[in-house]
Amino acid sequence: MSESNLIGFRVSRAGPLALLQDAGRFGVRHLGVTQGGPADLHAWAWANRLTGNAWGAAALEITFGGLELVAEQDLTIALTGANLGTRHNQKTAPMWRTLAISAGDTLTFGTPVNGLRAYLSVAGGFCGDTVLGSAACVVREQLGGFDGQGTTLQEGDTLAVNRTATTPASQVAPDSEQRDYRQAPILELLPGAQIATFTGKSLFEAFNAEWQVDQRADRMGVRLTGPRLQCSIGSLVSEGISLGAVQVPPDGQPIALLNDRQTIGGYPRLGNLTPLAASRLAQCLPGQTVRLRAAGIDSALRQHRQFLAAFR
User: Fold this and answer.
1) Can you give the residue ranges of the Carboxyltransferase domain (predicted)?
2) Over 80: is that where the pLDDT of 235 sits?
3) How many domains does the chain have?
4) Taking the complete model, does pTM exceed 0.85, yes or no?
5) Per-residue pLDDT at 165 exceeds 70
6) What does the pLDDT look like over 118-147, one tens digit per residue?
7) What is the mean pLDDT of residues 72-76?
8) Could you tell me the residue range of the domain that residue 205 belongs to?
9) Of 137, 152, 177, which marks where a domain is finished?
């Protein structure tokens, strides 16, 4: 550990999936390496903003809960994203705001109450081994994370944080930014190159029917169940796959691809979720209902640029 770093937390109980995520790993897809990064870009960005970190600082993504951390130092933190029944020293931990904790304090993440993935940031940012320009943890590729090997947190692990010379001022995210993930979202989708190969009935159903989030959902992608979409082509020559791409395999049930997706794919695509729509989908529990709404490239770009401008 560098002299400029210190031990921030010790893992007293490991949950099913807690991963270190910075902004992601870019410029390496030609090597077959995916981007990683936060599944919910919105919540991750707010966690870092509340603790005064620059864009790209590494935060902890906690899926499903079950994690318990003990602070080894006095720290300034923020919790955003899903409400996982988090408790600070056995009291309900405040979310979407800056929080000062002391050495010896405990943070306990229970089970999902509202959403699926919580984000924990610390002033100065967590430390991780940079691999191909990023500390983003991708378990399948064994890259990034606290050890550079893409491993999930284990009991007894210690989490290093960067020293920070100043304590960020107390902040609270605006109410409009504190998401209620229990609400059925409408996900904006940019129609894709193969959209004309789907039948008219399928296109009507795609954007008017309700879709259910399937049990088969992880950081690679989320399967949606509903009407069977029919396409005149069964497969394509494999081509690059972007974040939020919605592929339709032969069974007609769409799959929205997320951060840990493969880099190429050969199924026809209905289109592409916007980054914020993909983030919102990543917070949906199995069984939740979602709808798709067609969006234009100009409005989608404008929305995303406005989002980024607020954090950079």
Assistant:
1) 30-311
2) no
3) 2
4) yes
5) no
6) 999 999 999 998 999 999 999 999 999 999
7) 96
8) 186-309
9) 177
